[in-house]
Amino acid sequence: MAIQYISGKEPHAREKRLIFKNIDRVGFTPSIDSFLEDGGYEQLKVALKMEKSAIINEVKASGLRGRGGAGFPTGVKWGFIPPTNTKPVYIICNADESEPGTFKDRYILHQDPHQLLEGMIIACFAVNAKLGYIYIREEFPQAAIIVEKAIAEARAKGFLGKDILGSGFDCELYVHRGAGAYICGEETGLIESLEGKRPYPRIKPPYFPAALGLYMSPTIVNNVESLCHVKHIIQMGGAEYAKLGTPNNTGTRILCVSGDVQKPGYYEVEVGKVTMGEVIDVLCGGMKPGRKLKAIIPGGSSSKVLRADEKFKLKDGREIGIMDIPMDFDTMAACGSMAGSGGVIIMDDSRSMTWVINNLNNFYAHESCGQCTPCREGSLWMKKISDRIVSGEASPDDVDSLESVANQIEGKTICAFGEACSWPTQSFIKKFRDEMKGDCKPELVGEIVSDEGKVAAAGLAA
Amino acid sequence: MVQDLSTLTAFIDGEPMRFNDGDTVLKFIDRHRGRGHVPTLCDAPQLEPYGACRVCSVEVAMQEDGPRRVVASCHTPLTAGMHVFTESPKIRKLRRNIVELVLTDHPLDCLTCEVSGNCELQTVAAKVGIRQVRYPSGANHLNRSKDRSHPYMTSELSKCINCSRCVRACDEVQGQHVLSMHGRGFNARIIKGLDQSFMDSTCVSCGACSQACPTSAISDVFFSKSIEATRKTRTVCTYCGVGCNLNVATKGSEVLSIQAPTDSEVNHSHTCLKGRYAFKFVKHPDRLRKPLIRYNGHFTEATWEEAYDYIAKNLQRIKEEHGGNAVGGISSARCTNEENYLMQKFIRVGFGTNNIDACARVCHSPTAWGMQKAFGTGAATNSIEDLEYTNCILITGANPTEGHPVTGSKIKQRVMKGVPLIVIDPREIELVPYAKHHLQLRPGTNVALLDMFAYYILEAGLIDQDFIKKRCENWEEFEQGLRNLNLDESERTHGVPREKVRAAAIEYASAKGAMAFHGLGVTEHSHGSKTVMTIADIAMMTGNIGRPGVGVLPLRGQNNVQGAADMGCQPHQGAGYLQVNDEANHKLYEEFYGAHMSNEIGWKIPQMYDAALAGKLKALWIMGEDVVQTDPNTEHVKSALNALEFLVVQELFMTPTAEFADVVLPAASFLEKSGTFTNGERRVQRVNAVIPPIPGTKSDGQIVCDIMQRMGIPQADYTPDGVLAEIARIVPFFKGATWENLTDQGTQWPIKEGGIGTEILHVDSFKRGLGKFHFFRFQESKEIEKHHDEFPFILTTGRILEHYNCGTMTRRTGNAQIVTEDLLAIHPDDAAKKGIESGDMVRIFSNRGEVNMKAKISTEVKPGILYTTFHFPENLVNMVTSSECDEDTMCPEYKVVAVDVEKVPASSMPKKQRMMEIA
């Protein structure tokens, strides 16, 4: 029987629904019965009969790249667990989906939690983790309740606990709730938080949690969507899965489109098989009436902004416009940004870029954990300066000083938050410098050091 | 130029340099270019790399002209051939920009700031060349209020630069976890406890945070980071056997503040509130400043000459009338080796008697005795440093976080890193929540428990056959004893389920290396020496002797209790532990001192009291010990002192003991004199006078030397290094010790020629040849047998962090504001039965006497057990303790006292107490 979706929420014909197959599906509930009727946990049964290394090899062969933001190959990550390891191995599902512009994992957690559990139990089996944690952000209280219920159901059916399905493999999963901090999405910050500590990201080395992570044991941290893909990789086989999408950019991924389009929302597409232009015009029904595209943040708020009239030179020598960029990892990187978490933010010509960057700077100043000096102080100064630009009280020089603050954060912090908070500012200024300077008072040129600042610098202030 | 990149070579700005395996980039640069070449705000030598300030950033590349990366040097491991660029234009700009950001939220009142001239932020700002702050002012934290709640610790968080050094010092150095960061980003700020003041938080005032803080954000009332001092003198703390090194800042004859040297092997930038802050007693108005002579029952101030004459006359008379055996001396574990040496020489040579003892009698005499019997040496077999290498820690009858705070912290740090800890103690001490095993036995049953512990090691087959066979003797008897144990009876006796004992025993015996620490909870029992020997048995049967990370380590109580015994302040052994009744030794001593000496063992302290009461001991000389407050059964001690014809006391203050004296001589404190202390790991360390003796006082060594000369006993003028040279000639294990070669770090004895020390004893063979096993069957204490029916509670006593012994010194410092009285811990069940609530005044009484103090309801003790401390003369707890003592050494049984307890009705309280209650 054909799958029926709620009216008005039917997938677009250009979509390829793997992960979101059951989202908005008529009659499908988060209960295990729904999931089992749909063939749920069959892949777990298959996987439990496989060699552990064979599962890892299938995931490697699938070419699956992490869907949380960095796009790191999942199978390779699993392979980082030291072969000589004697400590327990942990898997953590990063369900701290907090990148502005991203809203895919919440649908999986809310509507199809067993898909995640099945993928995660297979992953646990593959890396021999007997304990896994699902770290759910504070802002998803319902998700935590739903997933906990799902875990109880799975346990009752023998998909979790001791000797799962007679395989001899024991596994337990637990939900851990965050307390409302963006930094907990950073994997080492998340691990610290899970250990009950302040979520300060860890210094390197150790370079990967897979070597030393939770409780100083090997730990795999995967995004919700990434873990869901594991189930489908087992079902299809790695090689078959790799045929989805484009080479090195395999499978499907969920794009979360927001902003000034007719139909914002989530769209699961084969990676690289649709272009930005198709996302806007075909999937999302085009820009709002009478409006023109101005800029796009293509992969969550931390990715660098793209200008509507930019031309991008690719490795093969082609020069393409913004609408021609295929929605994949590598081309997006070649265009100077990143596919990131799949959060595509479309901005039309009604939007003030000064306002947008100020909005982002406010977010990052609020979310800096405060551990590293450049980020703690710098993110606040970016906010303060862009506050001033937005209020029209700034000197055009402020735009340059804003850029210089961003430059001294990038690459100078323990975790990638430094980049996450400085890339937007750097790219917005690079691409919209004139507009931002235009929002300032030209008569203040040369006056960016305020009187108080001058006094302070002379060491005379109280 | 060295170009061998296969080995440990890397480049600093193009210059090839050797590095050590495990170096971070910063450590490497620090070593070759000096600390500070690369500036940093969050890194500190005593803390783990943190990487947060990023000021220490450098560029690194794998080829000189290869692509460069910016990394924080403090946490980046160095690799062979790495090129490090410490001051490229990019790096200089980066550092300047970071410091500029910090300065946007820092008050610029540098000239009036207490750390001006010694502020790391100031230095770093100067080094990176900040000339302006480009950012207009905005939100800041300049108005944060100061915390002045605590007698020592202060904070002024407007000066905080969020480097987290204080938080890390609290976690990594002290292990107290009081400080933490609250809020995030720009709102992140340091809090104490649950955002409390220092005073209200659980801070133990160790000051590690203050010392670690690069600014004055966290400091202390003594401004210990200011550069006001004109001199800094390195010396050794006088408070406990850890032997912390101290850097004492002075101006003229005023002691300004104390910090812990970063390079000290003993305490690595750390010390406790006693060492760091409790020094104000030095110039306390109560200090004795003139000799006092008792005429007709009243003290009269006298000159030193008058006092010496009076003493010499009386001692001479008593010697002539009653013989030298009518004179005795009690030396002091608080004094230097040189002073102790002279004291025993004075008594032995001057009076031809061996009636010389020291306060080790009442603490670790069973350790010295027991370990000599088992190993041949009555001292720690290993060093505290061995904690770094051990795989298991056993603590029996000790509370190191209170009694030996720096060692306690080190143990806690190791345990937090995963080393299993076994605690054998009747109380739930601070380390218990960290411990894997807590065997909470009934006080006084150590032998029963440790026998069972040994039995389970044997049963599990975890003995080291090879070690036993090659290195030990008398195993068969010991094994037979264990095999004959009645486990049911043992279990009933000590009250710990046998499975728990078994698990702990297996933990200890299966560790690759295990260290056994013990304290006064082992020694101050009627079977103290036997317990020490049983601990030695357990170490030997598992081969835990003679290598790194193992051993038997007594936590010596006083700063120089090891030294006092080493120097011969014991009635049975002279300087260097030579038995006085051995003919050869006797001859050696007589020849060395050129005097007629006694070859009969003298009286131990408790025997001296009995002799005094029997009229046999007529004169007693006490150097720096308050026996009335600290020895058991106070009334007995007092009557003994009253029975003496002549008592001389050398003291800092008019103590309850000094009150009984005929002559009181005002002595100088540790900050006012030089000499050496020997800590609990046999480390002989130089004590350097920080200020001259306060006017009117003299060092104890000077006093003893003066009186010796006055009485015609040959003795060269007093100099600490001169006496040390004499010691080196008679004490075998001091042979290579000279003042110079002890160095700043001290040297662990035996000290061989050239000043070479010994970290681990009994490496290839035991001092006594073969290690000897001893089996002892548990015997109930007579105190319990005699008095338990009438007095059904067992009182056990101990110490707290804030006060030292009878508190003569600490009660005259800010510590007295932190802890103001002794409290009696009582289990809630017992309290309920007796109708006692926390804060109630209770009466504790035994068949010796009674004492009143406030109760504290606590589950740290089991039902039937009471616990208190003995720091305050107002609560003279030794009124109730007994004269029972260790059979071998006469160390008093402070830890098992049969008492009863009852609530004191309000009307029968002293008036002052009632007033306080009403208020």
From TrEMBL, chain A:
Keywords of the record = 4Fe-4S, Flavoprotein, FMN, Iron, Iron-sulfur, Metal-binding, NAD, Quinone, Translocase
Q: Which domain of life is it from?
A: Bacteria
The chain positions of domain NADH-ubiquinone oxidoreductase 51kDa subunit iron-sulphur binding read: 354-399
User: Which Pfam families is this protein grouped with?
Assistant: Complex1_51K, NADH_4Fe-4S, SLBB_2
User: Could you give a GO molecular-function term held by this entry?
Assistant: metal ion binding
Reported EC number(s) for this entry are: 7.1.1.-
- At the top of the EC hierarchy, this enzyme's class is translocase
Coiled coil: which residue ranges?
none
Cofactor(s) this protein requires: FMN; [4Fe-4S] cluster
Is the DNA-binding keyword given for this protein?
no
Give the reaction(s) catalysed: a quinone + NADH + 5 H(+)(in) = a quinol + NAD(+) + 4 H(+)(out)
Q: Which family does it belong to?
A: Belongs to the complex I 51 kDa subunit family.
Q: What does this protein do?
A: NDH-1 shuttles electrons from NADH, via FMN and iron-sulfur (Fe-S) centers, to quinones in the respiratory chain.
**What name does the UniProt record give this protein?**
NADH-quinone oxidoreductase subunit F
Provide the species name: Brevifollis gellanilyticus
- What is this protein's gene name? nuoF
Automatic annotation (TrEMBL), chain B:
Q: Where is the 4Fe-4S ferredoxin-type domain?
A: 195-223
Q: Which GO terms describe its biological process?
A: ATP synthesis coupled electron transport; formate metabolic process
One cellular component term from this protein's GO annotations in UniProt: membrane
Q: Organism's domain of life?
A: Bacteria
**What positions does the domain 4Fe-4S Mo/W bis-MGD-type occupy?**
230-286
Q: Which CDD domains match?
A: fer2 (cd00207), MopB_Formate-Dh-H (cd02753)
Question: Start and end of every 4Fe-4S His(Cys)3-ligated-type domain?
Answer: 90-129
| Protein's UniProt keywords contain Iron | yes
What UniProt keywords are attached to this protein's entry? 2Fe-2S, 4Fe-4S, Iron, Iron-sulfur, Metal-binding, Oxidoreductase, Repeat
What are the recorded GO MF terms, alphabetically? 2 iron, 2 sulfur cluster binding; 4 iron, 4 sulfur cluster binding; formate dehydrogenase (NAD+) activity; metal ion binding; molybdopterin cofactor binding; NADH dehydrogenase (ubiquinone) activity; NADH dehydrogenase activity
> Mind telling me which Pfam families this protein's record contains?
Fer2_4, Fer4_7, Molybdop_Fe4S4, Molybdopterin, Molydop_binding, NADH-G_4Fe-4S_3
- The signal peptide annotation in the UniProt record is none
* Cofactor(s) it depends on: [2Fe-2S] cluster; [4Fe-4S] cluster
What family is this?
In the C-terminal section; belongs to the prokaryotic molybdopterin-containing oxidoreductase family.
What this protein is called in its record is Formate dehydrogenase subunit alpha
